[in-house]
Amino acid sequence: MSRVVHWLQDHETRLFHFVNQRIQHNFLDAFFTKITHLGGATASIMLSLCLAIFGHGSLRIAGIQALIALTISHIPVAIMKKKYPRLRPYLVHPQTITYKNPLTDHSFPSGHTTAIFSVLVPLAFALPVLGLVLMPLALLVGLSRIYLGLHYPSDCIVGCLLGTSASLITVAFWG
């Protein structure tokens, strides 16, 4: 079992270094430092609240669902961050490229990735055509967390699964 874990960790570290160091470009620096904030608390809560309060029909319902999913999804995030206190990559790998104000809390799982999927999945259900834009956008937020040196790929994958699961449960029960 430890061989499998070591193999997975090795490949994850390689993928992290590839995204964080090998694909560096001025355009990507600017793009990812902006887009990453879409998964932050301010953007995710404000978007959900605005839709819930000012939206009409399916958009209002999606806003309410997003608020519920956002709340539900961050319970396991908080628990997992305490139970599995994984250091952020830039604290473990000195060659990591970071940007201003790197976070210091635990990295597993990615709260930003969880939040963006929690908010955008209900919107994709409300307006399926919009989902063609929203899901790639959510994936880019997750990728930005790796690019910026704040998360390992598995942090973002688990965040995606938590946010998506909370959204699917919310849409199923409050649809």
TrEMBL record:
Please give the SMART domains that the UniProt record associates with this protein.
acidPPc
Where it mainly occurs, coarsely classed, is membrane
Q: Which UniProt keywords apply?
A: Cell membrane, Hydrolase, Membrane, Transmembrane, Transmembrane helix
What Pfam families is this protein classified in?
Answer: PAP2
List localization entries. Cell membrane
Gene Ontology cellular component terms for the protein in this record: plasma membrane
Domain Phosphatidic acid phosphatase type 2/haloperoxidase, which positions? Answer: 61-171
> One MF term in GO for this entry?
hydrolase activity
Q: What is this protein called?
A: Phosphoesterase
Report the source organism. Paenibacillus pectinilyticus
